[in-house]
Design brief:
This protein has 84 residues and is an all-alpha fold. The chain has four helices and no strands.
């Protein structure tokens, strides 16, 4: 499935999704795209005019950065605890 098709589907489904569910639907969309190896830069390019999707992407990337920082801190703690 191409990102172009996903965008068409999103644009077709968005009007029938209740407005208060748009954020959750956009988060699900981002997760599906990422899980299917769509690059965040490609998502940005394709959905740059859709603020709901862009907000979901921003949330996803911030969450991913936070997880990376936590893993890095754990690694550093493990490395510091080793005896040499």
């Amino acid at each position: 499935m191409t990102i172009e098709l996903v965008k068409e589907l999103w644009n077709g489904l968005k009007p029938i999704i209740q407005r208060n569910d748009h954020e959750e639907a956009a988060e699900t969309l981002i997760n599906l795209l990422i899980d299917n190896d769509i690059d965040t830069a490609e998502i940005k390019e394709m959905f740059r005019r859709d603020q709901i999707v862009m907000d979901a992407l921003k949330f996803f990337t911030q969450e991913e950065e936070s997880e990376y920082e936590e893993e890095e801190a754990e690694y550093e703690e493990d490395y510091d605890d080793e005896d040499y």
